[in-house]
Each structure stands twice: as structure tokens, then as C-alpha cells.
Design brief:
single chain, 419 residues, alpha/beta, 17 strands, 31% helix, globular
Length: 419
């Protein structure tokens, strides 16, 4: 960055540049550019309207603007579910508030001249309102420059694009997150595929991993039907087909997960029967960057005494993960993306999830209810207990210490119920 460029930046009020190293490498320049852009984005903030439900919005629009192609209510496996099993003295209130499950509203709406913006695929409706559903929560949507920064919009290239489109982008699609790639796409594509035009193009972010393309191909969407959406552009689409992501506790349906499981079974030639349900599985997070088990050596030794085998899913391809979980009898794991593989487990699998009672320090979420919802949808037996959060120097994310006595009691409770 030249001195003249730095001098021009200093003309903007409210911007105080941090001290710069004399020799800046490419990484330093990237960090600096991001810092400057973040400051500029905050200079001219706006608060557009937020649309919480596109189906309800479509009812107020003429057919030329929006029309719902199909809609239906899907009943959960049970109207009221039992509390999750735990050795903890108390159960977090979020579980108690979610014992009753209402039917899930699934729908597909066609929208004319909607705008798609940014790598998260945020959708701006023709009336200028922003759809909340791809971001899940208002506060997550409001934290995106694509939402609050009028300056960002001025510098993005605009294009009008003809044809039929369906966006597979959402808040976490750019993070290469296995959980959201698998779970969210199964939920969104199930039963929507049969209503989409044959020529529909699916929008995906830039720089997807090979395994993400593999997941989409298994679900019936080959690379010839995918289009990588440019990060720094706004597209006005002639026709956009939209189906919601939904709240985590309501988005899963038994039939959607069973459809996804069968697609992967068929693709990898897996035949699952109760006789093949034999594996006692411990999923390690040793290769992840956070929520690792700080006393994992002791945890593995204890579990090995009960017949458990440790697996690192990061070292397994998708086919290997599908096959492993299809044979699962008991799965023990700290909260993590690998638990999306419970979709591949046969009904009746026992699941023990270990997490901290504290909410995630970044997103402010307590994740266990999401795994609980998956287990309820798939007919698994869910239980949990809490580890102790361990701070990591220089990182807001935390690791975890597991009380071996809690672990052993939980394992004994599960194994005592097995035939």
C-alpha cells in the first residue's frame, strides 16, 4: 500500500489505522484491506426491512411477482418427545421448552426479479426487504455488510440474469462446514427437486471443496447444474425458486433425513440391517481448531475398556463415514460437525453428546438441542452431559475437559439398556 493511498484513507473521519510493519507481506496486506473495508462499511449504515417468512410475503404479492408452487405441513415423528437422558442434576431450559413439536411448514416459492448478494447468498425481495431465512436469525443477517452497508452496494457489480435459479447458499456455506453442507442441503432439496424446472441452475459459493460437490452430486445435482456465484456482485434473477432453511429445532423431518440417508446408501452400495449395527464409536476432535478434549488420552483409554474405537472423520472420505455410521450401535462425541453423520445411522442408535453448558462464545448458541432434534427425527436414543469449558490463550473459542466419572456413568447407563 503506497503512502499516498494511506494519506487518502486518513481523510475519512473515524478511521485510525493501526501501526504497520515496515515490510508488509501478502497476508498483512490482506488483513489491512479487510480492516479498512470494515471501517468503510460502517460509515454509511442502513437498516432495510427484514422478511421473516417468504411464503407469507408471497401471499401479499401479485402472481407476476411471487407465487407459491407448493406448500404442506409435515408432522414430526412424535408430537411430544421425552426429555433427553442425562446424569446432570438439571436439564437446560432449552430442552424443556422444546418437548412439543409443531408440524413443519415446507414450501417452494417462485419470485421474479429478486436480488442475490454476497457469498452468503442473501436474498433481497423485489420490495427491498431482506429474507431472514438464509441467515437463520435477525442478528446474524444484520451483522453482514451486505445488509447494513450502503457503501458495499455501491461498489458491487450489478447484473440482470435470465433463467430459473435456486440458491444453495446460506450463512455457513462459505465456511466449508460439513454439518451445514450435508444437513441443510438434504432438508432444502428433499421434495423441492420434483417441483423445480428441469433447466433450473443451482447457485453455490466460490471455492467449494471436492467433498461438497460430492454431497450435491449424491443428492442429484451434478456439476453441470451448478454455478459459482461471484462474491462481489449483485444479481437480479429473472426467476428464483426459494425454500426455507428453517430454525434448527424445526427444520429436520423424518422423511427428509430418511430420503437423504437412502441416497447415500444407494450411492455407496451400502445395505444396512440390524445385524450390521455393531460399532461402538468415539469421534475425536483432535484435528479441529477448537472444542477439543484436553484430557482425551484418558477419555480414549476409558472408552476402549468398554469396546469403543476412536475415529477421526477428517481422515475419512464421505463413503467411509456413511458406512461407519450405518453400522453404529453407540456414538460418543463432543458437539461437532461430524454428528451430521447421524443421518446415516440406523434407527435405534444410542448417541451420547458431550458439550459445555455455556453458550458458544462467538454465536451465543447452545448446540445440543440440534443434535437432539436430529436423533428424534431419526429414531435414535439421545443423551448428554456437560464437560468443563477450558479457555484457549489468544482465542475466543474454547476447548473442553471431560469428567471421567460422568463419562463412565453415562456409558454404563447406555450399555445397560442394550440387548
Amino acid at each position: 500500500m503506497s503512502q499516498s493511498s494511506l494519506n487518502r484513507i486518513k481523510l475519512y473521519p473515524g478511521i485510525n489505522l493501526p501501526s504497520l510493519p515496515l515490510q508488509m507481506n501478502r497476508s498483512s496486506l490482506k488483513v489491512m484491506a479487510q480492516w479498512v473495508m470494515a471501517k468503510l462499511n460502517n460509515l454509511w449504515r442502513v437498516s432495510p426491512r427484514i422478511c421473516k417468512n417468504v411464503r407469507d410475503w408471497a401471499k401479499t404479492q401479485p402472481p407476476a411477482i411471487a407465487q407459491t408452487v407448493y406448500t404442506r405441513q409435515v408432522a414430526p415423528r412424535t408430537d411430544r418427545r421425552p426429555q433427553p437422558k442425562t446424569i446432570e442434576v438439571t436439564t437446560p431450559q432449552v430442552f424443556l421448552d422444546s418437548l412439543s413439536r409443531r408440524p413443519i411448514g415446507r414450501y417452494l416459492t417462485q419470485i421474479s426479479n429478486a436480488n442475490v448478494i454476497g457469498n452468503e447468498g442473501i436474498i433481497i425481495l423485489p420490495d427491498g426487504s431482506y429474507t431472514q431465512e438464509p441467515a437463520k436469525h435477525d442478528f446474524l443477517l444484520q451483522g453482514l455488510p451486505e445488509y447494513y452497508s450502503a457503501l458495499r452496494h455501491l461498489f458491487l457489480k450489478r447484473r440482470k440474469v435470465k433463467g430459473n435459479y435456486f440458491s444453495l447458499m446460506q450463512m455457513w456455506s462459505t465456511t466449508h462446514n460439513y454439518y451445514h453442507t450435508l444437513r441443510d442441503n438434504v432438508n432444502r432439496l428433499y421434495d423441492a427437486l420434483e417441483y423445480l424446472p428441469d433447466d433450473v441452475i443451482f447457485l453455490v459459493p466460490q471455492k467449494l471443496k471436492a467433498w461438497q460437490y460430492e454431497i450435491l452430486a449424491t443428492l442429484g445435482i451434478g456439476n453441470d447444474r451448478l454455478l459459482n456465484f461471484p462474491k462481489f456482485e449483485i444479481w437480479t434473477l429473472e426467476s428464483l425458486y426459494f425454500t426455507p432453511h428453517g430454525n434448527a429445532l424445526e427444520m429436520g423431518t423424518t422423511e427428509a433425513f430418511e430420503w437423504g440417508r437412502q441416497r447415500f446408501y444407494d450411492h455407496h452400495g451400502i445395505t444396512a440391517t440390524p445385524e450390521t449395527q455393531t460399532e461402538l464409536i468415539y469421534i475425536s476432535r483432535a484435528l479441529t481448531s477448537w472444542r477439543r478434549i484436553v484430557n482425551e488420552a484418558e477419555v480414549e483409554q476409558l472408552l476402549a475398556r468398554y469396546g469403543f474405537t476412536t475415529y477421526l472423520t477428517e481422515k475419512m472420505n464421505i463413503g467411509q463415514q456413511v458406512e461407519l455410521f450405518s453400522k453404529a450401535k453407540v456414538v460418543v462425541s463432543a458437539t461437532g460437525a461430524a454428528l451430521a453423520n447421524l443421518m446415516f445411522a440406523q434407527g435405534g442408535t444410542h448417541v451420547l453428546e458431550i458439550s459445555t453448558q455455556e453458550s458458544d462464545p462467538v454465536l451465543g448458541e447452545y448446540y445440543c438441542p440440534e443434535t437432539w432434534a436430529t436423533c428424534e427425527d431419526m429414531g435414535h436414543h439421545y443423551s448428554f452431559f456437560h464437560g468443563e469449558a477450558v479457555d484457549r490463550p489468544g482465542n475466543i473459542r474454547q476447548d473442553m475437559y471431560i469428567c471421567l466419572e460422568k463419562l463412565e456413568r453415562s456409558i454404563q447407563n447406555i450399555l445397560g439398556t442394550l440387548p
